[in-house]
Hints:
Layout: E1 2-5, H1 13-26, E2 30-33, H2 46-58, E3 62-64, E4 73-76, E5 83-88, H3 95-106, E6 113-119, H4 129-140, E7 146-153, E8 162-169, E9 178-179, E10 185-195, H5 200-214, E11 221-226, E12 239-248, E13 253-259, H6 266-283, H7 289-301, E14 305-310, H8 315-328, E15 331-336, E16 342-347
Helix pairs in contact: 1-2, 1-3, 1-8, 2-3, 5-6, 7-8
Amino acid sequence: MIEIDGSHGEGGGQILRTSISLAALTMNSIRITSIRAGRPKPGLKKQHLAGIKLAGKLVNAEIKGAQVGSKEVEFVPKKRTHGQFTQDVGTAGSLSLLLQAVLPPAVLSPNPVQFNLKGGTDVAWSPPMDYMNHVFAWVLEKMGPRTHFDVEQRGHYPRGGGEVIATIEPVEHIKPLDMIEFGELKHIRGISHCVRLPNHVAKRQAKAAKETLEKQGIENIDIEIETYSKKKDPHLGAGSGIVLWAESRDGCRLGADSLGKRGKRAERVGEEAAQRLLEEILAGMAVDMHLADMLVPYFAIAEGTSRIGVSEISSHLKTNIWVAEQILGVENKIETKPDGTGVISIKGVGITLLD
């Protein structure tokens, strides 16, 4: 049984998610201790339990310690499965973080997989589902797997109630990725939404974002507006947000987002997302800081060496690479430049369905 120290590095939930996903993918038994030791309230929360349980369904795993507050979990995979799986976080816990725990084993599943999920689609400290669809899934497809996330209903903090259908078309093996520099900007796209709020909130977010980008001389900007009439709005609670992505002529895509909250003007939400995207573009690298750590598990199992240029070498990125080292023994190299950008290379172990 592989032992993973959950207090390593930042000591957050990232170690847990990556460890469980790689254990399910490789069919290796794993024990994770000191879970979320670096957080004010250590141990498992409901959203972490949901990810563990859903990953367990994929591989018929025996799981010990799967309770709220538990600081140690044993995960013993038994048999790969496929089909449709349902999981309700029970809170506004992030569905994108839940997916981080189950997508790696799903992309090498024997047959297509579908997840019917309930929880938070647009919540703080996690990628919004629009980012997952238009940045993460878009880049992942370059490595082979095709994933799509249908947002049936949005869920914001604190009410949650979001519904997502995630469809995964698996592959026999993962291709390596080689993307260093972003190149020349082609266009910027985005989605600005609001639920249980006046329609002008989403429009103001989009307008502010577009004006911020245009001040930098950027043209060819198209931001979709998503709103609902008060009489037909099915969402449990109010919320808003905007996701932007920039595509280059070299086939790279960078993303950024911002969420609305009580007391935060819609203009500020739009400006914030635009400024974050501008920072990613100006860094000149092919992969944004949030996508980089999400791609590590796929690099680790790819057939060949992946190399990406990253706008920032984050703690999440280092943590994921460390977990991949512990479980798969992958060779890797991190080059950090004086301006904070960097290039990482990871030599995958080449796991396939035949394994």
